[in-house]
Design goal:
single chain, about 150 residues, six-stranded antiparallel sheet, 5 helices, 6 strands, globular
């Protein structure tokens, strides 16, 4: 019984390591810009993090999956047109810097209206909390954004 409990504990710990932390970032009012294109966000990340992968095709694939889902639910044409307008405007971004020891940050990035309260959600995966914290700090500094306060 102890061996089974230990094995379950190890499995849960491994699963926890593979579950990304979701980081939600926003621009505080004093730093909020007008419209911020996804390409601008990608450029800022590429400049700071040489390992940045920007994949517009993967972004379009996500838009297509959403469109297919809406079509299957018989959404009105107006909604479908809005979804179609997202093609070419969403990029999948992944960063995996060598000094992050296997840690990574990834997100589907779309154009934002910071003055309207738009936020950026980033999945962060690291096997040590200090690496996770380093990634969070580096992203906030690079983008000039802050972490959305938790509701707890």
């Amino acid at each position: 019984m102890v061996a089974q409990s230990l094995a379950t504990s190890v499995i849960l710990n491994v699963l926890a390591l593979n579950t990304p932390m979701q980081l939600e970032l926003y621009f505080p009012d004093e730093r909020a810009e007008g419209f911020l294109h996804a390409q601008t966000i990608a450029d800022r990340l590429r400049k700071q993090f040489p390992s940045t992968l920007v994949d517009w095709v993967k972004g379009d694939a996500r838009v297509q999956r959403g469109l297919d889902d809406m079509i299957s639910k018989n959404c009105p044409d107006l909604i479908l047109q809005s979804q179609k307008s997202c093609f070419g405007h969403i990029a999948y971004i992944e960063i995996c810097e060598p000094h992050w020891c296997g840690g990574r940050a990834s997100s589907y990035v779309l154009s934002m209206e910071p003055l309207q309260g738009d936020t950026l959600t980033v999945d962060i995966q690291a096997d040590r909390s200090e690496i996770e914290g380093e990634i969070v700090t580096a992203l906030m500094r690079c983008l000039g954004m802050e972490r959305v306060p938790s509701e707890n």
